[in-house]
Amino acid sequence: MDFPDARQLMTLEAESARLKKLLADSMLDASILKDLLGKKWRRLTREEFYPASQLSLT
User: Fold this and answer.
1) CB burial class (10 A; 0-12, 13-18, 19+) of residue 3?
2) For residue 27, what are the CA distances in angstroms to 5, 11, 24, 56?
3) Which range, of 10-14, 17-21, 49-53, averages the lowest pLDDT?
4) What is the rounded distance in angstroms from the CA atom of residue 39 to the CA atom of residue 44?
5) Residue 58 pLDDT exceeds 60
6) What is the DSSP string of the chain?
7) Separation between Cα atoms, residue 33 and residue 31, nearest integer Å
């Protein structure tokens, strides 16, 4: 293998690693969204959203 071939191989390997990372990130995003959309959401009460320990002004 001569120098131009080795350089091209290194470039292709770097591009492959970058694309694999993008794919993994995209799959993780899809998984998180799927989990979030599958949950049942409810509105928090004021007491749940602002616990009493955080309401004190001292």
Assistant:
1) exposed
2) 33, 24, 5, 43
3) 49-53
4) 15
5) no
6) --HHHHHHHHHHHHHHHHHHHHHHHHHHHHHHHHHHHHSPP-PPPHHHHS-HHHH---
7) 5
Q: With 0.70 as the threshold, say if the pTM is over it.
A: no
Q: Residues 25, 28, 33, 35: what is their CA dihedral angle, to the nearest 10 degrees? A: -170
Q: What is the pLDDT of residue 29?
A: 95
The pLDDT value given to residue 54: 62
Residue 39: partners with Cβ closer than 8 Å, 6 or more residues away: none
How much is the pLDDT for 47?
Answer: 81
| 10 token code pair | 């290194």
